[in-house]
């Protein structure tokens, strides 16, 4: 398998890892965020400290965890904190540079839905819900979202339900969050970005062979495009080798 035939998981993990350059702490979920953070630690962010929702800070696992409570996270970790300390002191204390979140839906302001698809009382699908996502959204300095699907149903003009409000929506309700909310969204089509409060997500980069019109057609709102739209460098052989041979040789998440 070459860089040209990188899988979806590999593509998203590599691109997300590059966005972690110069960041110091990341609150990572299981799956693609773990892959991205682990790869970043080996490449663009060697000082990166990975924090998990189970309370593990500065994890140095011998292999990838399968859940946030996997015992492999504890061995060699810098600290294991109780939940009140993790959320009350680390997150609410403003000590997380980047929070990694996933969602079923996102809108142009970076609000996220991970609760239901369809009507709340008669949904087409019930999803896992918030977990710690609300705290991560409100208190991380910025939030990255990795989305496997980029279509008008996932990138929607109106969420079916708002699980994790970004700072714009929170401020409208009289709540002042610490962070900038979602600043990066990484998909198979490209990267959407915003700087913070008052800005919509806009298209800033596309993958080779993808045009801005393709991304606009797959987005459920009138997506703005950056004047300096760039083309993302494909995963390199070195990045893929690290992912496949060092980060996830057992294919826990790579597929």
TrEMBL record:
Q: Which residues, if any, are the signal sequence?
A: none
Gene3D superfamilies, alphabetized = Glutaconate Coenzyme A-transferase
What SMART domains does the record point to? CoA_trans (SM00882)
Q: So which domain of life are we looking at?
A: Bacteria
List, alphabetically, the InterPro entries matched.
Answer: CoA_trans_fam_I, NagB/RpiA_transferase-like
Family (UniProt)? Belongs to the 3-oxoacid CoA-transferase subunit B family.
UniProt xrefs under PANTHER family = ACETATE COA-TRANSFERASE YDIF, CHOLESTEROL RING-CLEAVING HYDROLASE IPDB SUBUNIT
Protein's name in the database: CoA-transferase subunit beta
Task: Name the species this protein comes from.
Answer: Streptomyces ovatisporus
């Amino acid at each position: 398998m070459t860089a040209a035939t990188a899988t979806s998981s590999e593509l998203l993990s590599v691109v997300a890892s590059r966005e972690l350059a110069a960041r110091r702490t990341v609150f990572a979920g299981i799956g693609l965020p773990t892959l991205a953070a682990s790869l970043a630690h080996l490449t663009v962010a060697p000082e990166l400290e990975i924090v998990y929702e189970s309370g593990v800070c500065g994890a140095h696992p011998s292999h990838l965890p399968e859940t946030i409570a996997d015992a492999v996270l504890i061995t060699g970790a810098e600290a294991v904190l109780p939940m009140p300390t993790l959320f009350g002191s680390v997150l609410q204390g403003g000590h997380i540079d980047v929070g990694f979140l996933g969602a079923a839906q996102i809108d142009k302001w970076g609000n996220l839905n991970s609760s239901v698809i369809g009507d709340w009382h008669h949904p087409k699908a019930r999803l896992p819900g918030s977990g710690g996502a609300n705290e991560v959204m409100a208190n991380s300095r910025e939030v990255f979202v990795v989305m496997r699907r980029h279509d008008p149903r996932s990138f929607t003009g109106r969420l079916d339900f708002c699980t994790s409000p970004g700072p714009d929506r929170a401020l409208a309700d009289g709540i002042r969050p610490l962070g900038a909310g979602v600043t990066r969204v990484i998909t198979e089509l490209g990267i959407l970005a915003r700087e913070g409060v008052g800005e919509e997500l806009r298209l800033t980069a596309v993958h080779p062979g993808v045009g801005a019109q393709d991304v606009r057609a797959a987005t459920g709102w009138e997506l703005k495009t950056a004047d300096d739209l760039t083309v993302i460098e494909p995963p390199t052989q070195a990045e893929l080798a690290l992912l496949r041979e060092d980060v996830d040789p057992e294919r826990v998440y790579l597929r």
